[in-house]
Design a protein that fits this description.
heterodimer; A: 270 residues; mainly alpha; globular; B: 428 residues; alpha/beta; Beta Polymerase, domain 2; Rossmann fold; 6-stranded parallel beta sheet; 4-stranded antiparallel beta sheet; 16 helices; 56% helix; 13% strand; disordered C terminus; transmembrane helix (chain A)
């Protein structure tokens, strides 16, 4: 089990190095290598999660290590879907470094499998965590795509048409993918909050407890709802959406790590 | 005999000389016949474009050969040799092959990396094939030149990025809008350069065209040409709410589009991006509008800057192309040398010896106990047979036949010898 995690981490590490090389050098061969190593990493990572699931018998998101690991896994999953669907150049260079950082932070957290408190053992847990993590992963990739948009937009605006200008996709594609990811992530986040409330009702008898995690999730949810509203009704697109999707991801990261490290929360993972 | 290239191009001859030396299709046919009638030339191909005229020959390598061809060119075109001589260059053997490879790869072109030259070279080769003026050597050389050009194209970035104003505009439009198929394009004014850029844009998929020109009739004519619609010039601001790409080139002495106006239009456009190219001098559009969100404004100097930078990139890439060419020259000469007679004869004999030894071993095995004297007799008979069988081919290969190259390559094929002679295998 430990081995599969280390192998996944190593593969992501190599893939990230190749992705950064591609960003700097613009060599197509590194791009292929990057996808291959990321795929290796994903396979080992899936194996690791499956093993944890098999051994513990519950969804492997019970410790912060597991949660970070599963979040990373979800991001790589979304990355591959977008990569396969849109084939946008250099996406890996903007997503994989983040994947590596998350994976590294997961690797330094205590890794032992803990038994789950009986009250949490409920089928809502599965639904709630998967929805939350995959939804946030989509918003994480949206952040990467948003940064790509901002760089490309700057290139065109300032007439800085160097190598990166040629290798980055068109503004339209980046804007579309960014929007698409938010429209995937936001409904999933909504469902995660609903299932979370139902779960809470089932085990604790109340839908909403004003737990810091709940509050911050709500803040994140309102933020993205506002982004979608601005886009659909005020015609906000391109640069503004890109900036917002980058800022929104910071809110997600805070909901994820900040709340656990700085506040006392029911979503303790311990 | 060697590969010989004689010709002139835009660097060595001005357009008057190039014009008078140019061959049209009919003259190429006549020229090929004339060249083949010169003694010492076995194969010929003529390339004639607006920027160059070149003769590719397989011919005797001595200096008088070059002089004879120059004289032929002057007489053929009835052009004074003294003038022609100053413009002509001649490259033999390795330099000739390198020159052809550079021409094919568009390294020698006026705009490095332009794609037309390869097609023109292919046409020249086709004519040579049809007229049977090219043979074993030039056919191989031309095929090689074409494959080298393709390699250069795919392995270097020599043909990437726009090197004309029109293409630069298209490239930028694609980086902003992706697919241009659903974009609306407006032409403001109808200058020559604006028309050219418009042609590039419609060629790249833009279907919806609006023309606003001060003289409505002229605008209408252009609109018909691009199957678009014409509007009164005074109405162009209204169209800004739908136009995604605007090329502006009117003769106005001041700005015809101000910041505040564009700001208003962006609201009606619901902030959809717009790409404006102002190629008029003096500029017609307030440069400040570039600071509006989702507005991308480029003037003529901006585009020229893009073009200059891309040309520079191409020159850098051409260094990589030269390396590829150097390697391919070696490959070509390896093949050429394999046509030499001596290694082929040696290999032929070695082959025969090999078969003999193999068969003898089998025979001795079967006979089981044979006297040394008999062994010698059998070997003697076999050697005699080999010698007699190989005598005629050897003499033919050693002879000074005009079609020696063909003979050698035929012999190698008939006897199943490798494309490279054994003796040369350890060479690079």
């Amino acid at each position: 089990m430990v081995l599969t995690f280390e192998l996944a981490l190593t593969s992501y590490f190599i893939a990230t190095i190749l992705a950064i090389l591609e960003l700097i050098r613009g060599c197509k061969a590194t791009s292929k290598g990057m996808v291959v190593f990321a795929a290796f990493g994903f396979v080992f990572h899936t194996l690791n999660i499956a093993l944890r699931l098999f051994i513990s018998g519950h969804m492997p998101t019970a410790s912060l290590h597991e949660a970070a690991s599963f979040f990373t896994w979800s991001i790589v999953l979304i990355f591959f879907i977008i990569e396969y669907r849109y084939k946008i150049g250099l996406l890996g260079s903007f997503v994989l470094p983040g994947v590596l950082v998350l994976m590294l932070s997961s690797s330094v957290l205590p890794r032992q499998i803990r038994p789950l408190p009986v009250i949490l053992k409920n089928s809502w847990l599965w639904l709630h965590t998967i929805l939350a993590f995959v939804g946030e992963a989509a918003l994480a990739v949206a952040c990467g795509v948003g940064i790509m948009y901002l760089i490309q937009q700057r290139n065109v605006k300032l007439k800085k048409l160097d190598g990166l200008f040629h290798r980055l996709p068109s503004l339209r594609v980046l804007d579309e993918v960014n929007y698409r990811l938010i429209t995937i992530g936001f409904p999933l986040l909504t469902l995660a909050i609903i299932t979370g409330a139902l779960w809470s009702e089932a085990v604790l008898g109340t839908y909403w407890r004003w737990d810091p995690k709940e509050v911050w999730s709500l803040i994140t949810w309102i933020f993205y709802a506002a982004v979608l509203h601005a886009r659909l009704n005020a015609g906000w697109q391109g640069r503004r959406t890109a900036i917002l999707s980058a800022v929104g991801f910071i809110a997600i990261l805070f909901t994820f790590f900040g709340v656990n490290l700085l506040m006392k929360t029911f979503h303790g993972f311990e | 005999m060697t590969v010989l290239v004689i010709g002139l191009n835009h660097k060595t001859a001005d357009v008057e000389v190039r014009e008078s030396i140019a061959f049209d299709r009919e003259r190429i046919k006549k020229g090929l016949v004339g060249l083949r009638n010169l003694t010492g030339i076995s194969e010929a191909i003529i390339l004639s474009t607006c920027n160059r005229v070149e003769l590719y020959l397989h011919a005797d390598g001595d200096l008088s050969m070059v002089e004879r061809v120059k004289k032929f060119l002057a007489e053929f075109h009835k052009f004074p040799l003294e003038v022609l001589d100053g413009a002509l260059y001649a490259y033999g053997a390795e330099d000739g092959v390198r020159h052809l490879f550079r021409v094919a790869s568009s390294l020698d072109s006026m705009v490095v990396g332009e794609p037309q030259i390869l097609g023109q070279l292919k046409d020249a080769y086709e004519i040579g094939l049809k007229e049977q003026s090219s043979g074993l050597i030039l056919n191989k050389l031309m095929k090689k030149a074409i494959s080298v050009a393709k390699r250069v194209r795919t392995e270097t970035k020599i043909a990437e990025n726009a090197v004309s104003i029109g293409y630069a505009a298209v490239e930028l439009a694609k980086k902003i809008f992706g697919d241009l198929g659903d974009k609306v394009f407006m032409l403001l004014g109808a200058g020559e350069m604006a028309e050219l850029a418009a042609r590039h844009l419609t060629g790249s998929g833009v279907k919806d065209v609006i023309v606003a020109n001060r003289t409505y009739e002229r605008g209408l004519a252009l609109a018909v040409e691009f199957s678009g619609r014409a509007v009164e010039f005074s109405d162009f601001k209204k169209e800004l709410s739908v136009a995604d790409i605007v090329i502006c080139s009117t003769g106005a002495r001041s700005y015809i589009l101000e910041y505040s106006e564009m700001e208003k239009q962006m609201k009606t456009r619901r902030q959809r991006p717009v790409f404006i190219i102002d190629i008029s001098v003096p500029r017609n559009i307030d440069p400040k509008i570039n600071s509006l969100e989702n507005v991308y404004l480029y003037d003529i100097d901006d585009l020229q800057g893009v073009v200059d930078k891309n040309l520079n990139e191409r020159l850098k890439e051409s260094k990589k192309a030269e390396d590829i060419i150097d390697k391919e020259i070696d490959v070509f000469f390896d093949w050429l040398h394999s046509l030499d007679a001596i290694p082929t004869i040696v290999e032929l004999r070695r082959n025969a010896e090999g078969i003999k030894n193999e068969e003898l071993a089998k025979l001795y095995n079967k006979l089981n106990g044979i006297e040394e004297k008999d062994k010698q007799a059998i070997e003697h008979a076999m050697n005699a047979m080999i010698n007699k069988l190989l005598h005629q081919p050897t003499m033919a290969l050693k002879g000074n036949d005009e079609e020696k190259d063909i003979l050698i390559s035929a012999a190698r094929k008939l006897y199943g010898l490798n494309s490279r002679p054994l003796g040369r295998q350890d060479e690079p």
